[in-house]
Amino acid sequence: MEIVSGRIHEIRPSGMMIIVAQMPEWRNMSICGNVVEIGIPDGRLITPEQRKHAYALMRDISDWMGEMEMDTVKDLMKLKFMVEEMKAIERRIFSLADCDMTTAREFIDFLIRFIVANNIPARQPLTECCSDIERYVYECLMLRVCAVCGKSADLHHVDAIGAGRDRDAVHQIGMGVLPLCRIHHTECHKIGRETFMDKYHLQPIPLTPAIGKRYRLTAANLGGQ
User: Fold this and answer.
1) Which of 41, 99, 152, 205 could pair covalently with 94 via S-S, beta carbons 3.0-4.6 A apart?
2) Distance between CA atoms of 212 and 51, rounded to whole angstroms?
3) Residues 188, 180: contact at Cβ < 8 Å?
4) How far is CA 28 from CA 23, 88, 103, 176, in A?
5) How many Å separate Cα 157 from the centre of its chain?
6) Which positions ≥6 away from 109 have C-beta within 8 Å?
7) E strand or H helix that includes residue 69
8) Helix, coil or strand: residue 147
9) Are 11 and 20 in contact (CB under 8 A)?
10) What is the rounded CA–CA span in Å between residue 163 and residue 102?
């Protein structure tokens, strides 16, 4: 892959950019199609708050791993993030001392997904440092863990099915749902939907067939016969 620097020639109101770059030895290149990857530097440095969140999450991972040193955990998680998450054009060694805000945000979200997937106890509510709440809730749903505390969860319907209706016969696809343990499920009913969402910075997502099957909903629930 040939990586070169270019200049932004024009930015249109629609978001379309015209970028001019000089390609050395372009006649000798094998160019397949007209689609290219473009990486634009963020220009903003990691914030102290982002750095604090990243180290707190890695400390939780370090405790879970037992005797592994914090520096080793940091190197391991950064390498895992680079290989699994970063695009080829962005794949590079980065430092939490001076990386850009975008890299920091994506690394923090990666750490959160790792913690959720491995059921690692966290000292702080993960929603407080998560930038992609919808993706976080979805992964908690698929793993059947509470989006608030990480304990075993059931499916909570944020969009009420309605009193007197047969839950097993209601077509639920598209209804807003959350994965909540019994304690937080009860709390949500007690303090009300909006207050609960504001308190824990959560966002329900529409029920999909994949989520429904994970919770063993009936064919009628999933739109079948």
Assistant:
1) 99
2) 37
3) yes
4) 11, 22, 33, 54
5) 21
6) 130, 131, 132, 135, 136
7) none
8) coil
9) no
10) 45
Question: Has residue 164 got a pLDDT over 50?
Answer: no
pLDDT digits (tens, 9 = 90+) for 19-71: 787 776 666 666 666 666 666 666 689 999 999 999 999 999 999 998 788 99
Residue 163 has pLDDT above 60, yes or no: no
The dihedral through the CA atoms of 117, 158, 168, 218 has a sign that is: negative
CA proximity to 105, closest of 71, 54, 38 = 54
Could you give the angle at the alpha carbon of 160 between the alpha carbons of 157 and 163, nearest 5°?
A: 125
Position 99, amino acid: C
205, β-bridge pairs: 177
Query: What is residue 47's DSSP assignment?
Result: P
